[in-house]
Amino acid sequence: MFQFSIKRLLTYTALIAVAIWFVRGAYLGFTQVETGESVASVDWLPKSASNVSYYRSYMNTAYEFDIDEAGFLKWSRWEVAEIAEPVRLRRYLAFSTPPPPEPSNPTNDEMVAFATQYARRAVTISDGLYYGYLQTNGGGVWVGYDRSSGRAYYQSAPR
Predict the structure, then answer these.
(1) Is pLDDT at 139 greater than 90 in this prediction?
(2) Nearest-CA neighbor of 89 among 49, 58, 128, 52?
(3) CA-to-CA distance for 73 and 96, rounded, in angstroms?
(4) Are 75 and 67 in contact (CB under 8 A)?
(5) Most buried residue, 31, 37, 77, 131, by CB count within 10 Å?
(6) Are 34 and 56 in contact (CB under 8 A)?
(7) What SS3 class is residue 156?
(8) Considering only CA atoms, which of 115, 125, 127 is closest in space to residue 154?
(9) Model confidence pLDDT, tens digit, residues 21-71
(10) pTM for the whole thing?
């Protein structure tokens, strides 16, 4: 039969409690999702950022906001460069909403509606600034500024 001292039992109990606390924290960190759409401002972006929409989780983070170019450059910690050819960035909608169902045997109008709805999940920037970094594991960070709309876009994944 096992015999444990009170000190050893308390030590094991404390270790188990810490392990449970750690696992619970990790689970919440990996599964918690925060979203917002057309929010006036948020405390994790510059005060000059407005009309913020976002999806934030451990696996994917994407947000967009209105800001002038000088404010964007001050906020950006990445070495953004002028866009030479149009670039496409995923928007927060790509993560916060499920993809639209593809219609079976669609009419032309249904296919146009599907394509339009699907296209809203990304943005194409032709005139502005861009930085993109793809990690070998599929993660990375992508940042863009669209001069025509005065809107900034950010998307990252840690994978």
Answers:
(1) no
(2) 128
(3) 27
(4) yes
(5) 131
(6) yes
(7) strand
(8) 125
(9) 777 665 655 667 788 888 999 999 999 999 999 999 888 899 999 999 999
(10) 0.74
